[in-house]
């Protein structure tokens, strides 16, 4: 047994049987292979230093290669005539070849491929987009100065017209223009009316007989018709008469939609203003010619013509009773401004709730033009629109009228009767003053949602 076991067992001699049995119960201890911490740290430091030195050598070699590539990348020698070609020209040629081979944007691809290394070595050699390739001549990787003639010829000149103020925007003078006074700014604003509202037009109500509609459908139809009427009404009161005329021409259905809603609104008034005006017009001679300005569907003519009266109706859309005309712009009747009123044939002009546009005073001036000497102007207007009744009367009289009668008996509207006064035609300065005074004098007539 002593020959089978080495003498490296711990304990007494192996020749002793009791000692051998005790030694078999103990675990064998292997020789230690663990090194000291000082030895480990020293070797790891040596290894890290060697790795660092190798890495530095590799970076030095890599940096030298990159530097050499930069120096050689700036120039590409050509063999055409013994001269060097610029990288940009060669990139353009290669891009053209790629484009001819089916590349969707060959020229641009070739230019991009050659411009990338050029930006590092020669960042100033790429001409801006506004220049042509002829403006820059490269030789030896350096730019030559542009020729003076080419610089002037290729220089961009802005030939676009000066910007004008949009409708409704304040007119701003140019930087080199003389400053405008408040009066001049207001005059420019009056000649540049505000644009219409950008709120979309509500859809039209379905054209179904009311007898075939359920109560809910009838309510929805009335709601759509009311919303559409309020939108059209806002356009007529917040824009010029010429804009309203264009709107009705572009969408003819708006005219009938508006007057249908207007009739339903008037149904709730104690006294219709047209009835009050018809009563006043009965005092005129039988042969008197009446011009209804802003007549709608010709309600006044339908009422008075059967009684033997002569009535001409004018509004933004024509029918069998109405002639199409914007009476704030031009009434298709003879007449002239001045003392003699040459050619005028109208004895009475009527404006029944029709001074709607922002330029309503132009309609007053046009009514005076077509009236005979001492002709009369009848006006009915919503009471709540007047910011000042006295100022309204003054403005109308300044156009060439004198107030003959004024009634405010009704709770909803007021009646005025003016007579034409002979005098000289209005001068430009005088007319501009009238426009300025009339601005904002009549508020828009708004109908609330019920």
Automatic annotation (TrEMBL):
Keywords linked to the UniProt accession: Methyltransferase, Nucleus, rRNA processing, S-adenosyl-L-methionine, Transferase
GO cellular component terms attached to this protein's record: nucleolus
Protein EC: 2.1.1.-
Composition bias type Basic and acidic residues, residue spans: 35-44, 56-92, 172-183
UniProt keyword DNA-binding present: no
Highest taxon of the lineage: Eukaryota
Biased segments, Polar residues type: 119-137
Gene3D superfamilies for the chain: Ribosomal RNA-processing protein 8, N-terminal domain, Vaccinia Virus protein VP39
Compositional bias per record (Low complexity), positions renumbered to this chain: 12-23, 93-102
Subcellular compartments: Nucleus, Nucleolus
Compositional bias annotation for Pro residues: 193-206
Chain positions covered by the region annotation Disordered: 1-44, 56-212
Sample GO molecular function, one term: rRNA (adenine) methyltransferase activity
Keyword set includes rRNA processing: yes
One BP term from GO: ribosomal large subunit biogenesis
Physiological role: S-adenosyl-L-methionine-dependent methyltransferase that specifically methylates the N(1) position of adenine in helix 25.1 in 25S rRNA. Required both for ribosomal 40S and 60S subunits biogenesis. Required for efficient pre-rRNA cleavage at site A2.
Family: Belongs to the methyltransferase superfamily. RRP8 family.
Official protein name in the record: Ribosomal RNA-processing protein 8
Source species taxonomy: Eukaryota, Fungi, Dikarya, Basidiomycota, Agaricomycotina
């Amino acid at each position: 047994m002593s020959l089978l076991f080495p003498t490296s067992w711990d304990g007494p001699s192996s020749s002793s049987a009791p000692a051998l049995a005790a030694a078999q119960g103990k675990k064998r201890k292997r020789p230690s292979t663990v090194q000291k911490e000082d030895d480990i740290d020293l070797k790891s430091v040596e290894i890290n230093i060697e790795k660092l030195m190798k890495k530095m050598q590799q970076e030095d070699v890599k940096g030298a290669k990159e530097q050499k590539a930069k120096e050689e990348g700036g120039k590409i020698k050509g063999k055409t005539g013994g001269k060097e070609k610029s990288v940009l020209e060669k990139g353009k040629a290669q891009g053209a070849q790629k484009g001819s081979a089916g590349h969707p944007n060959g020229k641009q691809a070739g230019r991009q491929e050659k411009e990338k290394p050029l930006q590092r070595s020669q960042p100033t050699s790429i001409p801006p987009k506004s220049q042509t390739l002829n403006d820059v001549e490269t030789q030896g990787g350096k730019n030559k100065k542009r020729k003076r003639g080419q610089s002037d010829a290729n220089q961009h000149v802005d030939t676009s017209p000066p910007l004008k103020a949009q409708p409704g925007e304040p007119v701003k003078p140019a930087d080199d223009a003389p400053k405008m006074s408040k009066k001049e700014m207001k005059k420019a604003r009056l000649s540049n009316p505000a644009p219409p509202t950008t709120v979309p037009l509500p859809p039209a109500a379905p054209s179904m007989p009311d007898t075939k509609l359920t109560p809910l459908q009838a309510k929805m139809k009335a709601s759509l018709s009311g919303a559409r009427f309020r939108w059209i009404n806002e356009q007529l009161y917040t824009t010029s008469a010429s804009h309203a005329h264009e709107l009705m021409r572009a969408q003819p259905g708006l005219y009938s939609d508006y007057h249908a809603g207007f009739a339903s609104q008037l149904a709730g008034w104690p006294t219709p203003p047209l009835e009050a005006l018809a009563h006043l017009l009965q005092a005129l001679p039988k042969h008197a010619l009446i011009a209804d300005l802003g007549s709608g569907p010709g309600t006044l003519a339908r009422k008075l013509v059967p009684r033997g009266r002569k009535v001409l109706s004018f509004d933004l859309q024509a029918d069998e009773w109405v002639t199409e005309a914007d009476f704030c712009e031009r009434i298709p009747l003879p007449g002239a401004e001045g003392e003699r009123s040459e050619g005028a044939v109208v004895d009475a002009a009527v404006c029944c709730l029709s001074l709607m546009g922002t330029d309503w005073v132009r309609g007053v001036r046009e009514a005076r033009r077509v009236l005979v000497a001492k002709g009369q102007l009848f006006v009915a207007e919503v009471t709540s629109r007047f910011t000042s009744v006295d100022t309204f009367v003054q403005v109308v009289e300044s156009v060439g009228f004198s107030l003959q009668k004024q009634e405010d008996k009704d709770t909803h509207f007021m009646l005025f009767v003016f007579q034409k006064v002979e005098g000289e035609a209005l001068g430009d300065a005088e007319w501009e003053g009238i426009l300025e005074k009339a601005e904002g004098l009549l508020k828009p007539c708004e109908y609330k949602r019920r």
